[in-house]
Structures are given as C-alpha cells and as structure tokens.
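WARN no homologs supplied; continuing
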Amino acid sequence: MEDFYIDFEKKLIEAVEGDFFSLYKKMSNEEIYVGSLVVDSDLTGFFLIFNTVEYLRKKDESLSRDDQFKEFREILSPDELKKLLGNYDGSFRSTKWIPDEWGYGNNSLDFSLVNEMSRKLSEKSNLLGDDFSDFEKNS
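OK structure emitted
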C-alpha cells in the first residue's frame, strides 16, 4: 500500500505539471492570479483549475449584467424569495474565489493527466472499500 502512495505522489506531481503547461497554452497572454488542485469531499478525486485576471473580468461583467434569480422572481413573491435567499440584497458577488467558476480547468483538455490520476485514486479507493486496516498502526 505504501508503494502505491509513493508512486502516486510522484505521478500526481508530474500530472499537475503536465496539465498546467497544457492549460497555460490555452491562456494565451492572460495573467494568472490563482490556481488550485481541488480535492473532492471523499478524497477519491480532484481537478486542477486556474483563473486569469482577464477571464475573471469577463465572467464578473457578464454575471453582473444578468439577474441570476430572474426565474425565481417571476414565480415567487418578495417574501418567498427572502425566505429562500435570506438577507441577500441582490448585489452581485464576484467569482474570484470560487474554483467552479474559474476559466481554465483540466476537464477542458482533450487528455488530462490529472483525470487519469484521479481515476486511479478512485479505483484504489473502491478496492479498499471501508477497510482502513492498511492505515492503522501496529503497536
């Protein structure tokens, strides 16, 4: 089991580097301000994502023009809408720190090394099931 993780760590680093350079080509001359390797809640998968100042500007401008809750406003009363959204004042919130909204992710690549590593980790997790004995220390 330990060999799997030592090998996995090395290959994951290579995958992140490889996907980064593939994504970097798609960014042209844009200025990267953030990148993240996002891990899912059960630690069996992840994705690599980046955003640029230019993509953020375009995305936020687009979202600030659109009423994100237009459909709800058409069918709900103001009181019902307030119940649903709480004290939301209707002002726009930037996507600057929301990875799902960033512009350049490994899922946009024709072939992603990070996706391959994620698949391998998921397969290993499925093989282990709920057996955590490999992680227990012998005293």
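Residues 2-135 form one domain.
OK
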